[in-house]
Amino acid sequence: MVAVAGMTWLNVLALFAVSGVLGAAYYMEFVYEELPCPLCLLQRIALCGMAAGLILNLRFGLAPRAYGLILLAAASGGVFAVRQILLHIAPGDPGYGSTVLGYHFYTWSAIVFAVSIAATAIGLLFDEQFKGRRTRRLGPVAIIAMVVAIGMTAANVATTFLECGLHVCPDNPVTFELLGWPS
Fold it and tell me: Cβ distance 61 to 133 under 8 Å?
């Protein structure tokens, strides 16, 4: 039972971490007025997919299929992040957007996705967490983590719609299409 409680808390911490990464992306978007490119949006979707897997684990009990969703989302996000890194790997290419501690946000995303894949794979090695699987009563911290992640996902849907409308998103967005801001 101790292993299950420990894995539940790790899922809560991971959910806060994913929400923090999405929050950092929104900080860059609104404070620095750096709208996300299509690959950035795909990375955000992958983060939301990871959050969905973590929420499934918290709400319905620890399950291999939820970890599978986390792995699938992290792997696809990693592919999107590495693709963006390779687009800007040429010498003299300034990259897309500002840097944080010397790395562009998509490089940090690649690191986050790689760590997530490794952590999830290690978590799957402890199969006693799946024996006698049952839904556990969630504490307030877990509920807050879930609400924050769902809020970040809803905000992602809304801002993506405002940025792109019902059209294909521009390669280098400069305004929210539906708002004309910033101009």
Answer: yes
The structure's pTM equals 0.89
CATH 1.20.1550 holds for 2-164: yes
Task: Give the number of residues written for the chain.
Answer: 183
The domain segmentation of the chain, as residue ranges, is: 2-164
User: From residue 165, how far is each of 157, 169, 176 by CA, in Å?
Assistant: 11, 8, 8
Nearest of 139, 148, 161 to residue 51 by alpha carbon = 148
CB atoms near residue 78 (< 10 Å)? 20
Per-residue pLDDT reduced to its tens digit, 52-108: 999 999 998 888 899 999 999 999 999 999 999 999 888 888 888 787 888 899 999
